[in-house]
Amino acid sequence: MLSAVSAGFFLVLIGMLFATIPNLFDKTVAFFRDFNLIQVPHLEGVFLPGPQNPRTIDALAVYSAIERFSLVWAVFLTALLGARFFLNSPRRSKAENLGNVAFWFGTAYVAQNLLIDVDSTDWFGFWAAIIVLIGVSLTVRAIFLAAAKLISR
């Protein structure tokens, strides 16, 4: 049941973003049309896809949508985690949910600090931080499972 609620909220959230951010679809298309192979800073000869002009109005709208989505989704997942504890869901479900909360709050923070509130967007730094957040999420899950196992003994 919680999975169905989660899927429904996800779709509503996407719809709300497109309804509240003017021309988000067009801005997203324009953002991706600006993609090209860009040299990764400090790595000579390494080129990865990225926006040629990462500070355009279209790009900032997409970054803002990413940050808003991440923040609202993290708050929803926090409420879902509370429901999992209340309904006595399995430990693995709680651990996964807790790891996801850490990831999405981290993503909102990173989007704000590396994409939006800076003089020059750090596109590749953002993706490096996302990879770190995946590791943080897995670590949070493992710590929760280890603690839950110790407590249940």
Q: Mean pLDDT, as a whole number? A: 95
Q: In percent, how much strand structure appears in the residues?
A: 5-15%
What spatial order of strands do you see in the largest sheet?
Answer: 1-2
Q: What is the alpha-carbon Rg in Å?
A: 18 Å
* Helix/strand structural class: mainly alpha
Number of domains: 1
Oligomer: single chain
Q: Number of helical segments?
A: 5
Helix content: over 70%
> Could you list the spans in which at least 5 consecutive residues all have pLDDT below 50?
none
**SSE run:** HHEEHHH
How far from one another are the termini?
Answer: 29 Å
Q: Number of DSSP strands?
A: 2
**Given the C-alpha coordinates, what overall shape results?**
flat
| Biggest beta-sheet profile | 2 strands, antiparallel
What does this structure look like?
With 153 residues, the chain is mainly alpha-helical. The chain has one domain (2-152). It is 75% helix and 7% strand. The protein has a two-stranded antiparallel sheet. The radius of gyration is 18 Å and the shape is flat.
Please provide a brief summary of the model.
The chain is mostly helical. Helices cover 75% and strands 7% of the residues.
List keywords for this structure.
7% strand; single chain; flat; 2 strands; 153 residues
List the helices and strands and how they pair.
Elements: H1 2-20, H2 24-33, E1 35-39, E2 47-51, H3 57-86, H4 91-116, H5 123-152
